[in-house]
Amino acid sequence: MKADQINIVRWFRDAAPYINQHRDKTFVVYFSGAAIASRGFDNLIHDLAILHALGVRLVLVYGARTQIDDRIHLENIIPYFAHGLRITDDKSLGPVIEAVGRLRVIIEARLSLSLANTPMSGSRIRVCSGNFITARPLGVINGIDYHHTGEVRKVQTDAIESQLAAGQCVLLSPLGYSPTGEVFNLNAEEVATRTAIALGASKLILMNDKPLPEDFPAQLTPAQIDELLLADQFPGMLATHLRNARTAIADGVQRCHIIDHELDGSLLLELFTRDGAGTLISAHAFEGMRQATINDVGGILELIEPLEQQGLLVRRSREQLELEIAHFTVIERDGKIIACAALYPYTAEKAGEIACVAVHPDYRQDRRGERLVEYLEKEARLQRLKYLFVLSTQTMHWFMEQGYQPASLDDLPVERASLYNYQRQSKIFIKHL
Ligand SMILES: CC(C)(COP(=O)(O)OP(=O)(O)OC[C@H]1O[C@@H](n2cnc3c(N)ncnc32)[C@H](O)[C@@H]1OP(=O)(O)O)[C@@H](O)C(=O)NCCC(=O)NCCS
User: How far away, in angstroms, is 312 Cα from ligand 1 center?
Assistant: First the structure.
């Protein structure tokens, strides 16, 4: 098989758990007017069509600020904003409705494409737009009259759910209607966030107009978002995404993703690869270290078997691992065990053995090994152990860098020394705590 064929097969297999995971789940996806006007928009539509074909229940929410600005400019109307919101007076309401309506038609048309030789070939997406969002006026705030600018009063979840259940993709605009029959110009991102919350969506996906800053974290919890917002480092759209993501997570949306729409394929990379391409916000850390449980045995075996075959780790059977699982600490990343280490105490000698330290090859050189060993050392101190030892054949220098010193068989607890494997000829290292 050729290298690129092998890569395709590997990629497909790696994506399979995500395909299963996302099927029948509700994703609310927000993209701005600028994204619609960009050259990459067709590709984004193709990627959304793939999600639809894979059984994701899609609610798309679009913004229209760029197109409304153009329209208002064309009509020589002076735009007014207050606190980042457009003041939609009587004069600008018409252009707002026209710009938003036009975009709806454009998006529906793109979603209908099913020409041969395009990624949409064979796709059949039925799109549905309607009066799903009930709005109310923002009113007069601090003496500023927002006129036809409004906020979400209610999301008609039953109506949206029945469309999704019928296999339709729901398209929401930034316009809402009041029970008095008026039209209100809404903030599209608020529409997306409130809709995701009301539907109890699995995901709220917020497409950012610019590449995310290089040092922007790949995962965030709500507490970390608070810290970032406090530092006021990310003004503008990104800060708005962060605020909305935090609100959505606090109100029950499982995960939020902030993705750069300019990066071609970013949506697919984010949803079908473990490392993603944007920022994931979830209530609990995406990756974390914890004590292993019996349910981790399969994951640990998968991690250590290749290393056992290379002779780096001593072979352990499933049964042995099940018996010893309480000694193991693991790092789990998005449901997969990517690192492990074990601490075996010899209480009488106040000693402990560190063993089976392993980090998945894709996740090395990021201090995970070091953090695991540090964690076990802390554990050992809590258990009042006086020193730790390790037997290693090829990782001696790594342990020396963690502060372990060469030692001899006589330094081991007698019980452990009697089990020393003379064939393996491991080197012994010790660290006093
Ligand atoms: C050893 C191991 C746990 C380190 O995990 P890690 O998360 O990459 O470790 P860290 O990020 O804390 O440290 C990485 C550093 O250690 C170095 N390192 C990795 N393996 C090493 C080895 N065998 N000997 C010396 N240095 C080593 C790396 O080169 C890197 O150094 P650099 O940053 O200067 O390039 C990982 O490489 C592994 O799983 N190896 C195979 C299993 C094994 O040998 N386990 C020990 C058995 S007791």
Answer: 12
* pLDDT for 127: 95
Domain boundaries 3-285, corresponding CATH code:
3.40.1160.10
Mean pLDDT of 234-245: 89
**Where residue 235 falls among pLDDT bands split at 50, 70, 90?**
low
Q: Which residues line ligand 1 (CB under 6 A)?
A: 307, 312-313, 357-359, 364-370, 390, 392, 394-395, 397-398
pLDDT by residue (tens digit) across 272-283? 987 889 999 998
Q: Which atom of ligand 1 is nearest to the CA of 397?
A: 25
User: Does this chain's domain 3-285 share its CATH topology with 288-432?
Assistant: no
245/256 Cα distance (integer angstroms) = 6
pTM beyond 0.85: the answer is: no
H or E element that contains 86: strand 85-86
Report domain extents, the chain: 3-285, 288-432
User: What average pLDDT does the chain have?
Assistant: 93
User: Which ligand 1 atom is the nearest neighbour of the CA of 358?
Assistant: 39
The answer to whether 346 touches 352, Cβ cutoff 8 Å, is yes
User: How many C-beta atoms lie closer than 10 Å to residue 39's C-beta?
Assistant: 8
Which residue type is seen at 87? Answer: I
pLDDT of residue 231: 84
Report which protein residue has its CA nearest ligand 1's atom 33.
365
pLDDT tens across 30-55, in order?
999 999 999 999 999 999 999 999 99
Ligand 1 mean position, distance from CA 401 (Å):
10
The per-residue pLDDT for range 296-351, each reduced to its tens digit, is: 999 999 999 999 999 899 999 999 999 999 999 999 998 889 999 999 999 999 99
How far is the centre of ligand 1, averaged over its atoms, from the C-alpha of 310 (Å)?
15
What is the dihedral sign for C-alpha 83, 84, 88, 92? positive
pLDDT at residue 192 tops 80: yes
End-to-end CA separation in angstroms for the chain: 52
Ligand 1 atom 46, closest CA: 357
Q: Which atom of ligand 1 is nearest to the CA of 402?
A: 12
d(CA 29, ligand 1 centre) in Å = 40
Q: Are 294 and 337 in contact (CB under 8 A)?
A: no
In the reported structure, the alpha carbon of residue 364 is separated from the centroid of ligand 1 by a whole-number distance in angstroms of: 7
Residue with CA closest to ligand 1 atom 35 = 365
Q: Whose CA is nearest to atom 27 of ligand 1?
A: 398
Chain mean position to CA 391: 38
The correct CATH number of 288-432 out of 3.40.50.720, 3.40.50.11740, 3.40.50.1820, 3.40.630.30 is 3.40.630.30
